[in-house]
Structure formats: structure tokens, C-alpha cells
Amino acid sequence: MWRPKLIGSNDQFGGLQCILVDQKTDAIQASVKEIDYDFAAPKIKAGSIYEITHFHTGCNKPSHKVVPHVAQLFFNARTTFKELPTIHPHIPRHRFYLVDYTQLSTRIDKIDILTDVFGHITGIQPLEQKMVGNERLEDKCEVCIENIRKENVRITLWGDTAETFDSQNNV
């Protein structure tokens, strides 16, 4: 989930954007207009599983597309989110469409899905298990990325993402 800022403004936002992922790792983008933000945003918690009703659908606009799904969901003040118990099948908390750097040039001038270059990996901490909330052990892996300004960012991967992260193919 993220709140995009309006272009040319430092303190005005353009609603809320979400990526919803199902147990098959299929993803769809959802949007909330700024006028409905105060009503819809408190009902949504990242990582939770919901039954969602009273929403609209439309075409995913190529200029804002962050997942390859052709449709997009639109939530408003009437949208209801019924949180479901976590006994359902495991649903990943992420969905990234990563492109190998050597293939990045093939994405130039294509608008079918937004492409963002964050930086390159400079270091990877080995996989370790960490206690989460004094109740369960989760796999954890930290990855250091350097951007074009030579600034370092540390990203923590958890659970299945950490476990399946292939450091040999991602360096």
C-alpha cells in the first residue's frame, strides 16, 4: 500500500494505491480516491486477508499500471472489508515483477507496466531465523542496495520471500 503525492505538490496526496495478492500469487491493483481516503484507509491493514464487497472495477490504465492485470479495483467509502481468520491458505505479502538488469533495455519506452530501477545489490546477509512477536520463528534475509546517488538502502525480506531469494541470480 502507498499514498502517491500529486505531481508538483509536496503536501497533497492522490488517494491510496494497493496491490492485492491471492494464494496463487496473482496480483491486481486497487485504488482509493483522495476524497474517500479517510473512510477506506482505516479499514485496510497490509498483510491481512479480507472478503471485500461494494467496490467497482475498471481497466488498468497503462500510465499507472504496476501489475500486468488488465483490470483494476476501485474502493470508496461504501466498500466493506471483512477480515478473515488466518486459517486460509498462505497468501504472500508481496508480488514483484523483477527484470534482470541485462534485460532492462527491452523495457525502454514500453508502457504496458511501470518499470522502476532502484539500484544494484551490494550485499546479502545469510538467511537466519528470527522470533516474531514472541510467538513464531520466521526466516529473515537482509539485502543492501546502492542507488545511483551512492546511497545505501537495507531491505529486509521475511518468510517465503527470504527463503526463496536466490542470491546467486540476484547479485
TrEMBL record:
InterPro entries: NA-bd_OB-fold. This is Replication protein A OB domain-containing protein. It comes from Prunus dulcis (Almond). The lineage of its organism: Eukaryota, Viridiplantae, Streptophyta, Embryophyta, Tracheophyta.
